[in-house]
């Protein structure tokens, strides 16, 4: 930090792929009291410009691939003073990380920071407006990830955890940084820029990885391969987070590997809210029980706690004492911070129910609920129903405007290869009838968009509307 002219409280955007320098830079920021802001390497010039201006970051650290993109907007960034590049080559106007590291003094006294002081800021996207800046304190991740590592990830010093996440997302902090670090476990990582199922399967069989954490989409893509031809000699614990886990994915993975998938539910603002831990009964479709130290409840619009089985907003108690592992606030946005609270609770923005055993069940984002002819429909439930049909490889459900019903359910589906040649009109009707049987009939998709792929090539897209 001395060589860069940075001091405690300065903000730095760290936009790097999964390379060892990411960890050393991030730990360096923590030790010097510099607030680091992770960013994905997939950002465009406009995305980078917005983040630099919104955060008032004094420094950006990236690689030679993205340095030209940063340079394309740098003339408009009045707050940015330092550009630092992690690469083999050099570039005009950029400091060289490797040269600075060589010249750095071996003695270093960490800056003293208090538990509630800002440590990191994550940008998170809502369904409307620009991304928000979520600030976390040193204790929020540094202590708040303890129960994540100990109970949900079930890590000990002999474990090796591979978390498939981008360094720009908070899930990376869970499975690739704080939780394993606190537990003294080892982190495995791979530099692949794009997900490749065969690479993942080869790594799981070649290396002594004991724990694996991915999204449901990752498991779904892996399960489409001949997993029985791979031997996972060390793998014993599979975890899922980042999006709701469909029961269908869990069943397919279990049938092919013999292993269960343990779900965790969290947000950029919260660290782990709910999880299914080793030893707990797995209820397919449930997100698990509240994670310490949170008091999680389902509440109504007046902040009253609802009884089991009643749908409402999933919320975390913040009064009389705000949990230390909850985000501090939305940076420069007191209105949004205030809007995230209702009575004694922080509102997650997710709708759900809790059952008699204390398991939480996800229904959908509060702002995603489809209102059709007065009925409230959660997209996730319809997606789940579609995924239970053998023809469907992937499904996404959204709201679509309708002159009579206000909104109707619209589904986008990708067919499994075995069904690519089926008559699409017959298959559409079959899928609609299937959803009617799996869930309340009014939830079926009245509009359906079918995509057919062979390998990576899309060969046919058709849209089918039903007026039934």
UniProtKB/TrEMBL annotation:
InterPro entries: AMP-bd_C (IPR025110), AMP-bd_C_sf (IPR045851), AMP-binding_CS (IPR020845), AMP-dep_synth/lig_dom (IPR000873), ANL_N_sf (IPR042099), Mitochondrial_ACSM (IPR051087). Its main location: mitochondrion. One of its GO terms (molecular function) is ATP binding. It is an enzyme of class 6 (ligase). The keyword Nucleotidyltransferase does not apply. It comes from the Eukaryota. Its EC number is 6.2.1.2. Belongs to the ATP-dependent AMP-binding enzyme family. This is medium-chain acyl-CoA ligase. It comes from Gopherus evgoodei (Goodes thornscrub tortoise). The gene is LOC115659068.
């Amino acid at each position: 930090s001395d060589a860069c002219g940075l001091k405690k409280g300065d903000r730095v955007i760290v936009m790097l792929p999964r390379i060892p320098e990411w960890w050393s830079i991030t730990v360096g920021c923590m030790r010097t009291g510099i607030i680091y802001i992770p960013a994905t390497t997939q950002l465009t010039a406009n995305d980078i410009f917005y983040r630099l201006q919104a955060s008032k970051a004094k420094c950006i650290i990236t690689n030679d691939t993205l340095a030209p993109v940063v340079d394309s907007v740098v003339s408009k960034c009045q707050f940015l003073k330092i550009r630092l590049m992690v690469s083999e080559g050099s570039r005009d106007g950029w400091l060289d990380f490797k040269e600075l590291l060589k010249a750095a003094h071996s003695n270093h006294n960490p800056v003293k920071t208090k538990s509630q002081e800002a440590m990191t800021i994550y940008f998170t996207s809502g369904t409307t407006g620009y991304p928000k800046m979520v600030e976390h304190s040193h204790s929020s991740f540094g202590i708040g990830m303890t129960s994540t590592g100990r109970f949900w990830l079930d890590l000990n010093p002999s474990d090796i955890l591979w978390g498939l996440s981008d360094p720009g997302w908070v899930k990376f902090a869970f499975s690739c940084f704080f939780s394993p670090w606190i537990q003294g476990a080892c982190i495995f990582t791979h530099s692949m820029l794009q997900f490749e199922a065969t690479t993942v399967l080869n790594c799981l069989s070649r290396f002594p990885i004991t724990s694996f954490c991915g999204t449901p989409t990752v498991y779904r893509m892996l399960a489409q391969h001949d997993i029985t031809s791979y031997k996972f000699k060390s793998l014993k614990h599979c975890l899922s987070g980042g999006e709701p886990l469909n029961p269908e994915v869990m069943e397919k993975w279990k049938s092919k590997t013999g292993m269960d998938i343990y779900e965790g539910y969290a947000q950029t603002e919260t660290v782990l809210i709910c999880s299914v831990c080793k030893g707990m009964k797995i209820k397919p479709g449930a997100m698990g029980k509240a994670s310490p130290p949170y008091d999680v409840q389902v509440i109504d619009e007046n902040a009253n706690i609802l009884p089991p089985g009643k749908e409402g907003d999933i919320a975390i108690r913040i009064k009389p004492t705000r949990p230390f592992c909850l985000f501090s606030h939305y940076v420069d946005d007191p209105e949004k911070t205030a809007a995230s609270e209702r009575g004694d609770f922080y509102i997650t923005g997710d709708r759900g129910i809790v059952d008699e055993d204390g398991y939480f069940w996800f229904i959908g984002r509060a702002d995603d609920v489809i209102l059709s002819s007065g009925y409230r429909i959660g997209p996730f439930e319809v997606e789940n129903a579609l995924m239970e049909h053998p023809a469907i490889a992937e499904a996404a459900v959204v709201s679509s405007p309708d002159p009579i019903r206000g909104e109707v359910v619209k589904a986008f589906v990708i067919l499994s290869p075995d069904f690519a040649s089926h008559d699409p009109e017959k298959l559409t009707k079959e899928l609609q009838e299937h959803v009617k049987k799996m869930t309340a009939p009014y939830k079926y998709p009245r509009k359906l968009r079918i995509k057919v792929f062979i390998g990576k090539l899309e060969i046919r897209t058709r849209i089918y509307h039903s007026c039934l």
